[in-house]
Amino acid sequence: MKKLLFLLPLLLCLGACSGHLKSAVKEGAIAPSFNDTLVDGDYLWVRGFGAANPKHTSDSQRRILSREAAIAQAYQRATEVIYGTNLESNIQVVDAISENSTVHTSASGLLNRMEIVSTEYLDDGGCTVIMRLPRAALQAAGIQVEETK
After folding, report:
1. Contacts of 78 by beta carbon, 8 Å cutoff, 6+ apart
2. Where are the domains of the chain?
3. What kind and span of H or E run contains 26?
4. Neighbours of 64 (CB within 10 A)
5. Taking the model in full, what pTM does it have?
6. Longest dimension (CA), the chain
7. Residue 142 carries which DSSP code?
8. Fewest CB within a 10 Å sphere: which of 41, 64, 111, 125?
9. Are 109 and 75 in contact (CB under 8 A)?
10. pLDDT digits (tens, 9 = 90+) for 86-137
11. What 3-state class would DSSP assign to 55?
12. Span 32-140: which CATH code?
């Protein structure tokens, strides 16, 4: 019993002190507020979102492609944090839906060390992923990123 009383506060503290990003999905939709990036003592955490193409009728196809788009966006966010923002984009928006938009991903070097921590699907087939990169890998590459909370 004494061990349980000792472990319970410890577990609560560990849960409250954990630095990773929390879910951005609430009741099957995007939550009203969330963080996209976080740097804690151990990791650079990034979130990516991908929307499902309404022209795809297969749930599997919609989920797979929205997940790939979410991963691509997470890589983009990580690159922005590590190297800064200097991106060129060509997207045509028609009736609030992007058309003629392509996503090209190419992760090399440091970004190859990123891992997917969680994947969540939205009710409409969209997807959000959380990925992380060890700060030790950043430091080994001579890259310093400041902690955020």
Report:
1. 44, 46, 111, 114, 131, 133
2. 32-140
3. strand 25-26
4. 15
5. 0.73
6. 63
7. T
8. 41
9. no
10. 545 455 555 545 455 555 555 567 888 899 999 999 998 899 999 999 999 9
11. coil
12. 3.30.1660
